[in-house]
């Protein structure tokens, strides 16, 4: 498939999407959003793919939604076209997605990274929600996801001042899972993705779905949901294989798809 704003490749069981609008620091325009969803559709439909990595360049994961594209939109236009709604499809993907972030992840770029299941950051990564400086606020989930990830005090401070947060602080605050040297970013993210992709795909997907319930429900309902999904795992061949392999002291061969 031909893409204009992204590069898509598969590395074994891992799908890799590289945002590729270097002249605009990977600003997220509507073409890019459409292409990301098209690529994700294909990677999700491919039973050989067990994990997806999304990355940008060394300078920018993405410097935000494309300001030039939206600057002159009227209220009726932005309301009727609802051009950012496609991001809900990105966030709702069922296969695991890792954001490998180097450089700027600002505004919609930070929000895109937070839509992924976790973020691996290079030591030069800079996160921020600077929309307030443009006379708007985060509009792709940032007010909600950032608050859940780093807590109200820091989310307020970041969204109200627009200040940037470096990689070390982002790790300390719970925004990113791991910080690695810039030169190792893609290798590390792909290695983690390969580990996930080597496991049982349905069990991985059920685990993702169950963890995500934590954002949507009470503790007791979340635990009830977990218990039901846990029980259902015993209907898979991979559960039988995983436990038999442990008992027989051999590596498991997961096959469910
Ligand atoms: C469109 C962008 C862009 C953006 C950068 N560019 N960010 N174009 N939308 N978000 C373009 C610049 O206009 C410039 O194009 C080129 O990329 C290089 O950027 P420079 O500014 O020259 O680079 P530099 O001096 O290194 O500064 C990097 C930067 C700065 C600090 C990241 O570009 C910046 O502040 N960008 C905007 C960050 C931002 O406000 N993001 C939030 C967007 S709003 P030319 O043609 O001049 O070379 C948002 C809302 C989401 O995301 C919610 C939607 C629902």
TrEMBL record:
Pfam families: ECH_1
The protein's enzyme class: lyase
Superkingdom of the source species: Bacteria
Family matches, as PANTHER family: ENOYL-COA HYDRATASE, MITOCHONDRIAL, ENOYL-COA HYDRATASE-RELATED
Record-stated family: Belongs to the enoyl-CoA hydratase/isomerase family.
NCBIfam families listed in its UniProt record: PRK05862.1 (NF004517)
Protein name per UniProt: Enoyl-CoA hydratase
Protein's organism: Microvirga terricola
Lineage: Bacteria, Pseudomonadati, Pseudomonadota, Alphaproteobacteria, Hyphomicrobiales
